[in-house]
Write a structure and sequence with these properties.
By secondary structure, this protein is α/β, with parallel strands linked by helices. The chain has helices at residues 17-22, 45-55, 70-84, 100-110, 116-132, 143-148, 152-157, and strands at 3-8, 27-34, 58-64, 94-97, 137-142, 159-163, 175-182, 191-196, 208-209, 215-217, 222-228, 234-237, 243-247, 254-261, 268-274, 281-288. Helix 3 (70-84) runs parallel beside helix 5 (116-132). It comes from Caproicibacter fermentans.
């Protein structure tokens, strides 16, 4: 997969999204906002997300960070979540952008640069909160930060959006920002161009499950599924009358569900999980033999 995308903010002004789509662009990463207050929503975000939807473009968002502590990073996620939650079904991933301007702001406030340990902690705090709330979480970075700031542990936790203007990406990444001097019909002036290598269309979920392979059970027998999630899990069958779902009491973050085969031989249904605020995600198919 290699799709042409762009990333934009209020700095790009009013955008003709149908012209953008007609030019061959497949999607856009929109700045949703910055900082730790919903009042800092990007002034063009609502117009832009309405425009991408109307033009049939895939859409993701990024949030620019000025965090100076883990608590502030959580506040930034709360502000971001409030901004984007009404558009959950339209947004494929959420990226967190901590870079040179973020460091300069910290220096202005504190008189010194943030430590690498603190930067890693803050980005992991924001992205972990986003992931726990059911969003695909992505870390924006350039090669300087990849080599000199973010630890291998941090890099291994998240899908990466790598700003690398030297040709192909210098490291594995889900998407690459290839230039900040692109031109696209429908946009006045220069625009960032991106190549997206990963299909983000699969729904994000905070529910871990011990079964992902399709399975079969004779009528009257049951299969037990274990889920792990910090919040109450909903486990459902897509088609009624084939499987009866019997939940067991939660034990910490774990919960068991017995799936009893009640349908006739040859019937089948998808089994779905969801945490609060998530769309049900199909995990496997249950067949009755």
């Amino acid at each position: 997969m290699n799709e042409k995308w762009i990333d934009v903010s209020a700095h790009n002004g009013e955008i003709g999204w149908k012209q953008v789509a007609a030019s061959g662009v497949r999607g856009a990463v929109l700045r949703a906002g910055y900082g730790n207050s919903p009042s800092q929503m990007d002034t063009r975000f609502q117009n832009n997300i309405a425009g991408t939807a109307a033009a049939g473009l895939k859409t993701a968002v990024y949030w620019f960070s000025y965090a100076d502590s883990e608590a502030d990073a959580l506040a930034e996620w709360a502000a971001c979540k409030k901004t984007i939650e009404p558009y959950r079904g339209k947004i494929l991933f959420v990226a967190y952008d901590y870079e040179y301007s973020s460091v300069n702001y910290y220096k202005k406030v504190h008189g010194t640069a943030p430590s690498g340990k603190l930067i890693n902690s803050m980005v992991n705090t924001f992205l972990a909160a986003a992931q726990q709330d059911g969003w695909n979480a992505v870390l924006y970075l350039n090669n300087d930060y990849r080599l000199n700031v973010f630890t291998p542990q941090t890099l291994g936790l998240w899908s990466l959006w790598l700003a690398d203007y030297s040709g192909g990406p210098d490291a594995d990444c889900a998407l690459q920002q290839t230039t900040s001097f692109g031109t696209v019909p429908g946009i006045s002036g220069r625009v960032d161009l991106d190549a997206v290598f990963r299909d983000f269309s699969a729904a994000a979920t905070s529910v871990e499950i011990d079964t992902t392979m399709d399975l079969s059970r004779p009528h009257g027998e049951f299969y037990t599924v274990k889920t792990v999630c910090p919040r109450q899990v909903s486990l459902t069958a897509g088609t009624g009358g084939i499987v009866t779902v019997v939940p067991f009491p939660r034990n910490g973050n774990e919960q068991l569900f017995a799936l009893v085969a009640v349908g006739g031989p040859g019937t089948e249904t998808g089994i779905y999980t969801a945490a609060p605020g998530e769309k049900p995600l199909k995990r496997f198919v249950y067949r009755v033999t």
